[in-house]
Automatic annotation (TrEMBL):
Bias-annotated ranges (Basic and acidic residues): 174-183
All residue ranges annotated as the Fibronectin type-III domain in the record: 23-116
Domain of life where this protein originates: Eukaryota
Membrane topology note: Single-pass membrane protein
Family matches, as InterPro entries: FN3_dom, FN3_sf, FNDC_type_III_4/5, Ig-like_fold
Annotated region (Disordered), positions in chain: 117-136, 174-207
One GO cellular component term: extracellular region
SMART domains hit by this protein: FN3
Compartments it resides in: Membrane; Secreted
One family name in Pfam for this protein: fn3
Organism: Oncorhynchus tshawytscha (Chinook salmon)
Entry protein name: Fibronectin type-III domain-containing protein
Keyword Kinase assigned: no
């Protein structure tokens, strides 16, 4: 009887998921790209873990209702939160979803949305916001590109002006040399005509 009970119960025990099989909780959770009605959540997970998705919980700091967002893309490490209220404090947590259940919730991250009048994000859960740095870098790139384009255009204009000037000089030299060549040819034709006339007159005189 004892052997029968052991053989039957052991498979049942193996089907119960162990706590060690649960995936680890995400780390380095942060909120960036803050707007009046949206924000982007970023996180990281340890390498070598089998993850099939993520769960993001969103809650107002002064409220009790929570909103859960399921992210089934295993390669994604970010999620955009939409339909947020302006100038409102929120709390978010991220969980990893594995083959045997969900991980523990990550540390709570607080953030506050902006006003609608604010064009660019002025604060974030991190001290260095890549969104602001990206805007500054894009502005610097645009300014540098405009300077390069202006310099190239000025160089082309200088090259064209120099070419036109050289072309005018060469054209003037060709026209002056052409005039000099025409004068000797006209002068040389006159004696030939005269000599030809003399020869003709001599051939007509009787012997």
């Amino acid at each position: 009887t004892n052997n029968l009970f052991t053989s039957v119960s052991s498979p049942l025990i193996s089907l119960v998921p162990l706590s060690s099989d649960r995936p680890p909780a995400p780390v380095n959770v942060s909120v960036m790209h803050l707007r009046a009605d949206s924000a982007t959540v970023y996180w990281e997970i340890p390498e070598g873990e089998v993850i099939i998705g993520f769960s993001i919980s969103q809650q107002r700091q002064e409220g009790h209702t929570q909103r859960f967002i399921r992210e089934v893309n295993t390669t994604s490490r970010s999620c955009v939160l939409w339909d947020l209220d302006q100038e409102t404090d929120y709390i978010i947590q991220v969980q990893s979803i594995g083959l045997y259940g969900e991980s523990q919730a990550s540390k709570r991250v607080h953030f506050r949305t902006l006003k609608k009048s604010d064009r660019f994000p002025s604060n974030s859960s991190n001290q260095d916001d890549p969104a602001v740095e990206g805007v500054d870098k894009s502005r610097q790139l645009q300014t540098g590109e405009m300077i390069i384009i202006v310099v190239v255009l000025l160089m082309w204009a200088a090259v064209i002006a120099l070419f036109c000037r050289q072309y005018d000089i060469i054209k003037d030299n060709d026209s002056s040399s052409g005039k000099d060549k025409v004068k000797p040819s006209s002068m040389a034709s006159t004696p030939e005509h005269c000599s030809g006339g003399l020869l003709r007159s001599k051939s007509r005189t009787p012997v």
